[in-house]
Design a protein that fits this description.
The chain is built from ten helices and 25 strands. The chain is α+β, with helices and mostly antiparallel strands and 476 residues long.
Length: 476
């Protein structure tokens, strides 16, 4: 779950380089920002624009996160560079994600009508051909058509940005919602309040921009704030923000017998939308009076006749395919899956065996990294993200349809709370939730699923992080 919180934080901030006219040379330079998560310093970022001798425009961003995860200090670096032709078309994108384990790299370049995207993750090199993105320099300088001498409340525009990790282009909209006057360096200055929305992800940001194009502050979904600061102040970070604790959903009272109870009823208060309402045999989420009623019960598997391998149901076979972070076609994962399950054909028995093996063989530790199945198999350590991604990789390698699930789970620490968590949904003739972190072949009823699918789908959780509270209700 932490990969979502940290990875999207840099890439989803709308590009905020601005100018009344596209005088690119006047924009050259860099700005430093402090990064604040839920009000506490979490890192720093630098944004820059440079013009090469051939006229190529280079827009670069680099963020460093210095945080704690359950008291353990973590450092993660995300760097992104975009190159545009002098007349505007996108030429290339490069991205690096450096964590405690390795550096992941993504390189994309435009060739004719195609975009060639190369990735290096977990020592696995891959390349694919995608349609040429619509993104151009005009998108990087999107607010040039909003602020300035003639900008007024209500002015709006659309923009497009290609994200290498998601392998997709995301469209958004920006709109001036207010204009105010502030005293900056002793000078009265017009400041524009701009609202930007990336509807596919449900991510919204509010930024403050001066008339001359300086971005003073940008806050994403009320969670992460970029604040313009001198370089020395921006870089002054003391690992004070524990992202796991600070983002928890506090409960009004303890949940009794959380791992063994047969059912659970909760009232969830906060920005839960239709994108988060996953209803299935295990859970029901129902909007009610400005909140959401959550009801869950244990999946019934006793006496259930599980599907047998090979799985051929066209509705689920796509969830056997490998992905960027789940390299289930890699020989290392295939061999390990065979070693664990042998010749077993029963899908439920395979799921149970893999759940137990992953739980018993991973050493629990907390780390900020862009997790993938190969590196977890090699290192055998991590938190819920590593447990679940390895389980999914092994299960797909064994022939089971599996998808990532994310949301909240109850944990009784110093105070009762639901913490952001990741697990898996496995198809064994029907979908069941499996949590290898807690060695649960059938996930307990305190799992609140709010996202399902890859990292792009999990990014829809961003508006809920640190914004939810929970009321524990009596069972009916």
């Amino acid at each position: 779950m932490k990969k979502v919180i940290l990875m999207v934080s840099l890439s989803l901030f709308p590009r905020l380089l601005v100018a009344q006219e596209l005088d690119i040379q006047s924009l050259a330079g860099e700005d430093w920002y402090g990064l604040y998560m839920n009000g506490s310093k979490a890192g720093y970022a630098v944004e820059s624009l440079n013009v090469a001798e051939d006229g190529t425009v280079i827009v670069a961003e680099e963020a460093h996160f210095k945080i704690k995860m359950m008291g353990i200090e973590q450092h993660m670096r995300v760097a992104l560079q975009r190159r545009y032709a002098p007349d505007g078309p996108l030429l290339s994108i490069s991205q690096e994600v450096e964590d405690s384990v390795t550096t992941k790299r993504f390189e994309g370049r435009v060739e004719g009508d195609n975009f060639i995207l190369s990735s290096s993750v977990g020592g696995v090199e891959s390349q694919e051909t995608l349609p040429k993105p619509k993104e151009s320099l005009a998108d990087a300088l999107q607010h040039a058509r909003l602020v300035g001498e003639h900008g007024k409340v209500g002015d709006e525009l659309t923009f497009s940005v290609f994200e290498p990790i998601y392998k997709t282009e995301i469209e958004g909209r920006s709109r001036i919602i207010a204009i105010e006057e502030r005293i900056l360096d002793g000078v009265p200055t017009r400041v524009f309040k701009v609202n930007s929305v990336m509807q596919p992800l449900g991510v919204e940001s509010v930024c403050y921009i001066t008339e001359d194009g300086t971005t003073l502050e940008d806050t994403m979904s009320g969670i992460l704030t970029m604040r313009l600061e001198p370089k020395e102040i921006a870089q002054d970070v003391g690992y004070i923000n524990d992202v796991i604790v600070s983002n928890a959903a506090i409960a009004d009272r303890p949940v009794e017998n959380p791992r063994k109870r047969p059912s659970l009823r909760l009232r969830i208060k906060g920005p839960v939308t239709e994108d988060h309402l996953f209803n299935d045999e295990r859970q029901q989420l129902t909007p009610q009076d400005g909140s959401v009623l959550f009801q869950s019960r244990l999946n019934a598997v006793d006496g259930f006749q599980a599907a047998q391998l090979p799985v051929t149901d066209p509705a689920v076979v796509k969830w056997i395919e490998p992905s960027l972070l789940v390299q289930s076609d890699d020989k290392r994962l295939i061999d390990k899956a065979k070693e664990i399950v042998g010749g077993e054909k029963d899908t439920l028995a395979i799921s149970n065996a893999l759940c137990s093996w992953v739980h018993d063989n991973i050493r629990t530790t907390f780390s900020a990294q862009l997790t993938n199945a190969i590196e977890v198999l090699e290192n055998l350590e991590g938190d819920c993200t590593e447990y679940s991604i390895l389980f999914i990789g092994l299960a797909r390698a064994a022939g089971l349809p599996v998808r990532e699930a994310a949301g909240l789970i109850y944990v009784q620490e110093s105070r009762p709370a639901f913490y952001f968590h990741q697990w898996a949904s496995v198809w064994v003739g029907k979908w069941i939730d499996v949590d290898p972190t807690f060695d649960q072949p059938v996930a307990d009823v305190t799992h609140i699923k709010l996202a399902e699918g890859d990292m792009f789908e999990q990014a829809k959780l961003i508006p809920t992080i640190g914004q939810i509270s929970i009321e524990v209700l009596e069972d009916e």
